[in-house]
Amino acid sequence: MDEQGPLIGLVTRCSSRGFVGAMRLPDTDLPIFGAFCKVEAQRGYSQVIGLIYNISIEDDEFARQMAVAERLELENLSDQQARLLPVEISALSVGYWSDDRYLQTLPPQPPISMAPIYSLSKEDVQSFTAKLDFIPLILAASQLPVDDLLVAVLRQAAQARPADMQRSFLLHAGRECARRLANDLTRLENIIHGLAERED
Fold first, then answer.
1. H or E element that contains 36
2. Contacts of 102 (CB under 8 A, 6+ apart)
3. How far apart are CA 83 and CA 26, in angstroms?
4. Which residue, 9, 174, 188, 200, could crosslink 23 as a Cys pair with Cβ 3.0–4.6 Å?
5. Which pLDDT tens digit goes with each residue over 72-120?
6. Contacts of 148 (CB under 8 A, 6+ apart)
């Protein structure tokens, strides 16, 4: 596993199936839907790999006061937008790093409170997605926007690769989705259509 990526949060609550983190971040550093992240678990013995499925800007009293002000100067608005935002991210656990290899299954233990959450580097995304055995974990997360998340994740994985490898990766991913969703053709069609749109 490569060096740490940007710090995007500290764990506030967690379970074996996922974790939530919070931190104040500038808007330029906000993670995106479907991004890969990692957090330490088992006292450093493993790193849980997560997929960000929700990003929310938490209540900010100063922003609320400005929003209801009778008159808002553009300069004040620019200053407000440059402030650190109270961000909360939610991630689905889809694997972990242990003993110098990735395993695409639920981790043996969740991370602990206040553990730092980092973005996964492009190199680590490429290594983790060399296999696509994590797809069933996404498909099983029925409470989430599963189809949109799967498309976004596969798009991130493709973009982590050199340009000449992206199309072949998406074709491989499409075939794997077809194998997993052979009994749900409508859903499969939506996912394949989403991947094809991202490819254009």
1. strand 36-41
2. 49, 95, 96, 127, 128, 131
3. 6
4. 9
5. 555 554 555 556 788 999 999 999 999 999 999 999 999 999 999 999 9
6. 33, 194
Nearest to 34 by CA among 117, 132, 125: 125
Q: Is the Cβ–Cβ distance between 192 and 174 less than 8 Å?
A: yes
Domain boundaries of the chain, sorted by first residue: 7-199
Q: b/e map of 53-87 (b: 16 or more CB within 10 Å)?
A: beeeeeebeeeeeeeeeeeeeeeeeeebeeeebeb
DSSP-assigned beta bridge partners for residue 91: 19, 52
Cα-based angle 142, 146, 150 (whole degrees, multiple of 5): 145
Total Cβ atoms within 10 A of residue 97: 22
Q: For residues 54 and 172, what is the distance between their CA atoms, to the nearest angstrom?
A: 26
Q: Which tens digits make up the pLDDT trace of 29-84? A: 889 999 999 999 999 899 999 999 999 987 666 556 555 555 655 555 455 555 67
User: Which amino acid, 158?
Assistant: A
CA distances from 21 to 67, 88, 113, 163 (A): 26, 6, 9, 32
